[in-house]
Amino acid sequence: MTEHGFKELTRENWLEPDPLSLAFSNVHDVAMGETRRMSPEEGLGYILEPQLSTSVPQDVRALFAVARGTMCYGYYFYPLYMLAAEQLFRVAEAAVHHRAEQLKAPKNLKKFATKLKFLVGSGAITVADKDRWDAIRTLRNEGASRWHRRSASTSVGFASSRRSWVAPSGPGFVSGHTCHWPCSPRA
């Protein structure tokens, strides 16, 4: 670790796991509550599992691919997990923008918050999912200036729960682990 609180890259260690990444674990025996270190392949599996359908707009799919690729390499340089999280916020914002346009939102809705409110009002985002979307907006608003101050434990928890925040239900996101576009209100 360096004065920055994360691995200092060198020619010798750049392909070695970041020590913080070694903290990821899986429940090994549910009955006994035993955990074991997650293998790099298991972590990669969790990252690659969520899929976007071909109906998601191409620019959103490209942003998602960058986030996913960045997260994959976080195993070697832990700060990439937070950069991937920031990229996922861009994915969410782009999806909200596209869905609002598709539903012909008023042109004066420029902010993420007002577009979210419109999508909730139109039924594209359920009232039940509104809090999750507001949380995404709040985290996005914290911005890159604060990522380095987040503790390792917060980052580990944030990254390890990625399947629920990578693709919340709503404008073009998860149905199971396949993401679809456009979304429609749930029956």
Structure in words:
With about 190 residues, this protein is mainly alpha-helical. The chain has one domain. Helices cover about 50% and strands about 10% of the residues. A hairpin with a 2-residue loop joins strand 4 (about 175) and strand 5.
Which key features would you list for this structure?
187 residues, disordered C terminus, 8% strand, mainly alpha
The general outline is elongated
Widest sheet: strand order? 3-5-4
Q: Tell me, rounded to a whole number, the average pLDDT.
A: 78
Strand content: 5-15%
- Rg value: 18 Å
So how many helices?
Answer: 7
**Element pattern in H and E:** EEHEHHHHHHEE
In short:
The strands form two sheets. The protein has a three-stranded mixed sheet, with no helix packed on it. Helices cover 48% and strands 8% of the residues.
Furnish the topology, listing elements before pairings.
Blueprint: E1 25-29, E2 34-37, H1 40-48, E3 51-52, H2 58-73, H3 79-102, H4 112-122, H5 127-142, H6 152-160, H7 162-166, E4 174-175, E5 178-179
Parallel strand pairs: 3-5
Antiparallel strand pairs: 1-2, 4-5
Helix pairs in contact: 2-3, 3-4, 3-5, 4-5
